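INTERNAL AUDIT FORM
Audit reference: QA-55
Scope: verify that the stored structure record matches its stored sequence.
Auditor: D.O.
Record contents follow.
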Amino acid sequence: MGVIGRGFVQSIDFLLRRAQGVREFSQREGCILRLSLGRAGMGQALSDGTVIRAGDPVGQIHLWNERLPLMGRAGADLAWARAFRFQFARSLEELAAYVAHEPSLAEVKAVYGEMAFALADLEMARRFAQRMGFDFLERPGAASARGRWAQFWDNLYTLMLIWTYNPASLRGKALGQLRRYQLWISREKLLAHYARNRGKANASASEDAMD
């Protein structure tokens, strides 16, 4: 059942990526992000002054599940955190280079990613996002009945992906205790922090992992 079930989830994951136009912007070893293009569903003001209006073109980053560092049975430890932060920083460097030179992204004003976090991990996730240059924002409409319903199914699918690709990461992630947050970074901030400082982000990520 485990092999069949995981194969089924992998197939669904593949089909959804195709439907959403998710692209692999880098084949560099260690890149753990993919990218899709879309339009902002609502207005958003970012901390650096960038204003996103409904309908503006934006990029959405997705975790490349097959490439994420595998956790041990005990869950996330310092070694895992260091590996993830290093790979995330490297991936943002690759993303910045792609955004800077890809013509189809010329009008993209910002990129964001959405993730589910356990309630107990929210503050740690917020600090990590801010260190990496992102605004950490609650998913729009999360408090409404419709928003809670959508969040339930999205969280269920997230748990299915975790079970498929990195099952040790399920530790501490009960369905009812997950909340979805978005990590936003403007185009200007992405390029300023990662395109102009290639290599420095890696050192910064390694230092943060030791804090």
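Auditor finding: record pair retrieved intact. Residues 156 and 175 are 7 Å apart (CA to CA).
Action required: none
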